[in-house]
User: Which sequence fits this backbone?
């Protein structure tokens, strides 16, 4: 972004900064409502918006203030679109914070080009690139999903525990895919395994036969697909099955979802994968609340609820909707000491915070923020059995 545009955006933001009284605070929900993970976005948005409604209905938020969600589409894969969507949320809608973005590249673009120049806080529920751990964020960026550096270690453990010695690896050609592929390769090779090929693929193609031919030529006991379930990753799997190149797949987080199981069907049985998740009391409570609200507790939906909750609790703790005031409260609220807070208890948490008490926000994803404001990480190991995603264990 040119300096003149940054200055214009910043000046406009001053006109729509946090209101003097939090009668109605708008919080952005910046997700990939279109693009390679669009099937995951509705539940994530519903999770974030459920937290906002809960806080509003409690009557405890900012002396009876209300919270209104404003959705915007990052597309996941178009940095320009993600930047424009974030700028609209900040300058037109006047949000002081947003839940999002969804994918790592879109998150980086929105943060650097829109949020940072305007002082806006972002909490991503699903951007997992290791590069985001060291990005210069001025204390404005957090994430409730763990880094892919940890996911790479988990995947290496899963492979070695199954006695698998060599695998082919393909990844979507962007920040998320490359970062995750590097983490998987490094961890698996450190554990004594062999990556026969580590090859990128592009999303949006109609034919993946050439990519699959190269993967098959390199060989491997199975194919690790670090891609997107609504785009290239699905295409790679279908082409592999059609050609007989591979019949078993390891599915990292971006590949785990009901949409993939429905699209591929029984041939996916026996494949396995991993995604953030826990068997905590908070996870069970979130699932209960989600179903009561009319949506399924899908992948990253608890993390989205938690991101929204932390934003509102931080505002309450600071007594302000000014990002410069409340951004410094988020780490303390997400960690001990204090009374543990689960989904459905935001009213109680807001009251405690208002009265100067301490809380340890656990939420739906067993939140614990470490280091540069990111989740320590809990993972759910799954396997596709009889056309369904079954949980094997938690790590």
Assistant:
């Amino acid at each position: 972004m040119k300096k003149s545009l940054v200055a214009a955006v910043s000046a406009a933001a001053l006109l729509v900064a946090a209101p003097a009284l939090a009668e109605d605070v708008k919080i952005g929900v910046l997700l990939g409502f279109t693009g390679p993970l669009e099937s995951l976005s509705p539940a994530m948005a519903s999770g974030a918006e459920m937290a906002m409604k809960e806080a509003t209905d409690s009557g405890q938020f900012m002396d009876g203030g209300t919270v209104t969600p404003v959705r915007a589409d990052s597309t996941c894969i178009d940095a320009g679109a993600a930047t424009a969507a974030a700028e609209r949320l900040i300058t037109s809608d006047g949000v002081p914070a947003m839940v999002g973005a969804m994918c790592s590249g879109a998150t980086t673009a929105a943060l650097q080009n829109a949020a940072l120049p305007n002082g806006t806080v972002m909490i991503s529920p699903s951007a997992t690139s290791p590069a985001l751990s060291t990005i210069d964020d001025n204390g404005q960026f957090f994430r409730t999903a763990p880094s892919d550096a940890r996911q790479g270690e988990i995947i290496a453990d899963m492979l070695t525990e199954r006695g698998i010695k060599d695998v082919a690896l393909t990844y979507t050609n962007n920040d998320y895919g490359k970062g995750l592929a590097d983490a998987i390769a490094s961890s698996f090779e450190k554990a004594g395994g062999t990556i026969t090929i580590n090859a990128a693929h592009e999303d949006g193609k109609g034919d993946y036969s050439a990519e699959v031919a190269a993967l098959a030529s390199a060989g491997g006991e199975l194919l690790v697909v670090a891609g997107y379930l609504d785009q290239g990753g699905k295409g790679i799997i279908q082409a592999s099955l059609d050609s007989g190149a591979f019949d078993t797949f390891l599915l990292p987080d971006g590949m785990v979802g009901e949409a993939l199981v429905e699209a591929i069907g029984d041939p996916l049985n026996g494949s396995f994968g991993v995604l953030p998740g826990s068997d905590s009391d908070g996870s069970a409570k979130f699932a209960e609340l989600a179903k009561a609200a009319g949506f399924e507790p899908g992948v990253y939906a608890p993390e989205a609820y938690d991101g929204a909750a932390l934003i509102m609790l931080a505002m309450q703790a600071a007594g302000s909707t000014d990002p410069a005031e409340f951004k410094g409260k988020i780490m303390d609220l997400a960690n001990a000491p204090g009374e543990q807070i689960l989904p459905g208890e935001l009213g109680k948490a807001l009251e405690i915070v208002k009265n100067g008490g301490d809380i340890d926000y656990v939420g739906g994803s067993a939140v614990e923020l470490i280091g540069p404001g990111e989740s320590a990480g809990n993972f759910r190991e799954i396997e596709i059995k009889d056309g369904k995603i079954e949980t094997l264990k938690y790590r």
